[in-house]
Amino acid sequence: MKYNKKFVSITTAIALTAVLLAGCSSNSSSTSASASTSASTTASETGGDSEMFTDRDKEIGYSESESTTIALSGSSATVSGEGATVSGGTVTITAEGTYILSGTLTGQIVVAADDAAKVQIVLNGVTITNAGSAAIYVKSADKVFITTASGSENTVTATGELTATDGTTKIDAAIFSKSGLTLNGAGTLTVNAENGNGVVSKDDLAVTCGTYNITSADHALNGKDSVRIADGTFNLTTTNGGDTIHASNDEDTAKGFVYIEGGSFKLSSDDDGIHASGALTICGGTVDITQSYEGIEGKNIVVSGGTISLVSSDDGFNASAGTSSNSQQGGMGGGMQQGDSSISLTISGGTITVDAGGDGLDSNGNLTITGGTTTVYGPTDNGNGALDSGEGCTISITGGTLMAAGSSGMAESFDTSSTQGSILYTLTDTQAAGTQVTLKDSSGNVLAQFTPAKTFNAVNLSAAGITSSGTYTLTVGSQSYTVTMSSISYSNKTGGMGGGKMGGQMPGGQMPQHGQQSTTNSGTTQQSGSAAVQGANTQSSAAAAA
Question: What pTM does this model have?
């Protein structure tokens, strides 16, 4: 958890959150756009598989006979049809319609249409390069659709410092739109921005299908009001402090959200993998964040499906009402400020693997797990924990499977609002990476098993079958421990201020929180707010325990 953050006033509207959740529940599978011979020029703004996408967003077909063709050639172009003009290396589209582009251009494509116009730009084997400004610039339109033709390879590049402006608007992306923008198609689009962003919409940015290879200094995909992804293949890399997927709106707190319904993602960033100032919802797809400062950050994060793996130098998941920067490192982990119950991290489904240098699952408010399978390889230092919730907020589990390992200093257990049992066990000795952890019930059934990828001296386990009155065998390498439950949440952690709150192991005195137990003079461990629990250690081999 970070402390040196620039906080902004952000409150996500309840109605928006309900829409996002409804979209997940109605269709958690990937959505693919269907090709047709003719594209409709109008569409319902609420059509499609969820309220996030229109029928037009997903329509990748077009009629060549009814379209204007633009043949790009070096520093000029030839237009066949209506609605576009050429002046030197600038092609300007001025009217609603479909425009099919092919060839190579050193210059710029500009859309300057009526504010009610819907414009479809079909990229059919193009290479467009522009210096100092966007290669494709949407100055005005109601909405623009950039469609990659089936099987086509297309490259859009902005070189040099992006210094161009339009009034007070800085045109700081290879593809820059002041209007709503949708990317779709059955081809490939490669975007390069050695400075600035890859793709920017100052409105909503939607992607419904296609393949996208984006390398940029700043954000790869950036939507002011939202980023909405139905499907597609994404290889996104940022090199100078940008997020690979970013949505932020400081003016309208109901916006600035990210919604991912499906797709395949390979993301590498030196800042956040996915960032939203408001809600961040993942319903499905395969998300692989290979490098990040914080993996996934938003005010209200909901994961209901999909497969997510991430590597972060700081927090893996971070539910926060602030903004982050990878230059703002340092500070104590684990939460020294009162939590905010309007902030939340909720996992209800999916398969999640987190490898975090900071907190694994971090919420500055509530942290709730109701389903899915979540594995956390947490921090190796005692300034952070595998789990971290806001002070005074809820950290609960009611379903699913959690397997977490990390340092013990800030290790936090689930609270008694949980309905599924959990075990936080701190170990005397640090365990090497690759040491297997297994939890069995009294009948020998394996309830949870994983192999932490980093050193650890604490494990936190929860799975179906763990109850408030059962007896379990925890095996860590060649060591076995007997855990006898007398509460829904077990912890043998002693010392420190507990619960992932203020600072690690403290000499003298204890302040148990969130189900943390204290040690009595008799040696019995007493769980705060619950009955006594016994933890008996036994020595055995892993083979004998099995």
Answer: 0.84
